[in-house]
Design goal:
By secondary structure, this protein is mainly beta. It has 2 domains: 4-65, no CATH class; 75-365, no CATH class. Helix content is 6%, strand content 29%. The protein has helices at 151-155, 157-161, 181-187, 260-265, and strands at residues 4-6, 8-13, 16-21, 32-36, 45-52, 59-60, 91-99, 105-113, 139-142, 145-148, 199-200, 213-218, 223-229, 246-248, 253-254, 268-269, 277-280, 284-287, 306-310, 315-317, 335-338, 342-346, 358-361. The protein has an 8-stranded mixed sheet, with no helix packed on it. The chain is elongated.
């Protein structure tokens, strides 16, 4: 779309020309940029601007319109704290003042979770023997696919990855599994020792009895024209964009993609349970994929259910609707707009070890 900037405007009424300019020569004012609002939804088109001291008719001060010919994108849905599942112990929600990444001063929900889901059990992760079926183990995410980590999967690791170094079981078929909390800590270290080579890493719920994970989410989302891209690593303080993707309605974190290359590079396997989660002693129980196990709020129009919120306050919905169809108009963040839910996201396929790709709303600093 062509960008149009208007600094003065001539309007003709019955043959008489009237010049509207942004400021007279003797006026003491500071011109600011106003954005055209064709559809009257209160959001401005960033491609059509007007420089003036005061807003001309049909112009607004923000440039947040996704489509200035369609008012449906302006619907903004607040975070609904009543949808979070709680047994009175797993999470608390309070309202606090906050400042967003675009400078907006607003209200946020501060959600403090112990990372323990109340809607499903955690685990299992590692089968104990290569004869075990899928009910004894979790899942693994590889190449966009979800694999059951059953005994046969463990037995076939060398063929699966084309590397004869893999052999995670003894002569009786018993799988090598971490046994203690210290094993869990050491095997999750970036510099895994050789003593854990060919181990299945299984961190247990008993290791995270005193975890408190805090999330700060704007109650009313504020759309940004330029999405915030997730970044990993870098010097401390250089990147303020949260790596956490969001929070499930049961209070469990939607985490960044699991570092599977690092895990496999140490010849270890850290499976996820059937809900797509596993445990880190610092992070608690957290998800790396949405598999349809966690609590969801069904939609009356057949739209995929709501499963959580991103850290910009926009809803995160399942990938497919009741007919198994995925939206075809998702943007780079995996979001789009409809007339019921406003702007919102849809999760990636579970096998991709991913939820959403970026944040299209302002996030809390």
């Amino acid at each position: 779309m062509m960008r149009l900037t208007i600094s003065s405007l001539v309007i003709t009424f019955f043959g008489f020309g009237i010049l509207l300019s942004s400021c007279g020569e003797d006026d003491a004012c500071v011109e600011v940029t106003w954005y055209q609002d064709v559809d009257g939804d209160g959001l401005g088109n960033p491609e059509v601007t007007f420089e003036a001291c005061e807003a001309p008719a049909g112009y607004v001060s923000n440039s947040n319109d996704l489509d200035d010919d369609d008012a449906t994108n302006t619907l903004v849905i607040d975070v609904d704290e009543t949808l979070f599942q709680s047994d009175g112990n797993n999470l608390t929600i309070t309202t606090v003042d906050c400042t967003l990444s675009d400078g907006t001063v607003t209200k946020c929900f501060q959600v403090v979770s112990n990372s323990v889901p109340v809607d499903h059990d955690m685990g299992p992760w590692c089968p104990s023997n290569i004869s075990d079926d899928a009910s004894e183990g979790g899942i693994w995410l590889e190449g966009g696919e979800v694999y059951d980590v059953d005994g046969a999967f463990i037995e076939n690791m060398a063929n699966f990855y084309g590397d004869a170094t893999w052999k995670m079981y003894d002569d009786e078929g018993n799988v090598y599994i971490t046994e203690t909390q210290q094993d869990c800590i050491d095997a999750a270290n970036p510099n895994v020792g050789d003593e854990y080579q060919n181990f299945c890493v299984e961190c247990l719920p008993s290791y995270i009895t005193d975890i408190a994970v805090s999330f700060l989410i704007p109650i009313t989302p504020v759309f940004q024209n330029t999405p915030a891209q997730y970044q990993m690593g870098g010097p401390p303080g250089m990147n303020t964009i949260p790596s956490t993707r969001g929070i499930a309605l049961n209070g469990v974190e939607f985490s960044a993609p699991a570092p599977v290359n690092n895990i496999l590079g140490a010849y270890t396997l850290a499976p996820f349970d059937d809900a797509g989660g596993h445990i880190n002693v610092n992070q608690g129980y957290h998800y790396h994929a949405a598999t349809g196990v966690s609590y969801a709020v069904e939609q009356s129009d057949g739209h995929p259910p709501l499963i959580g919120y991103a850290l910009d306050g926009y809803g995160i919905y399942a990938r497919t609707d009741i007919d198994g169809n995925e939206p075809s108009d998702l943007d780079e963040c995996r979001g789009h707009t409809d007339s019921v839910r406003g702007y919102h996201y849809h999760v990636d396929a579970a096998g991709n070890n991913n939820f959403i790709n970026c944040l299209h709303g302002a996030y809390a600093n």
